[in-house]
Task: structure prediction
Amino acid sequence: MLSLYNGSLDVPKLLKEWYEAEAQSNYGAYIPFVGTVRSEDGIDGLSFDIYEPILNSWFEAWQTKAKERGAVIKMAHSRGDVMLHESSYIAAVFSPKRRVALEFIDAFVEDFKASAPIWKYDLIDGKRVYAKKRSTAIKGSGILGAKS
Result:
């Protein structure tokens, strides 16, 4: 399950919904990860643009990997502006065994940072400024892409 929201994420609400949706699924582990906008470089927050077709196919590939191990991955991400100390990203893994969930949440979050087609902008004095120094080039993504 991949969900995109305008603005910041309601962390308690989403985590509760996910937990309740899987409560009877007989998973032995539920491991969430919550990403929060932190104060750095004088920003007021972050803003996000998302290329949904690639994000959807990337996420589906991860769901397939998880399913092979009996697990489920859920993810929510913000579009647009998210202010300091608010959440822009939540991921969770449900799995029969804790080891699978621990391994998947780590690999999933790291691959998300490296591969998801989400562009980050700093919000400074009411303006969106591309956050190039804190962005990761996606392999094969044109002029900003990492070379093979």
Q: What stands out?
A: The mean pLDDT is 90. The CA atoms of residues 64 and 90 lie 19 Å apart. The two ends are 31 Å apart (CA to CA).
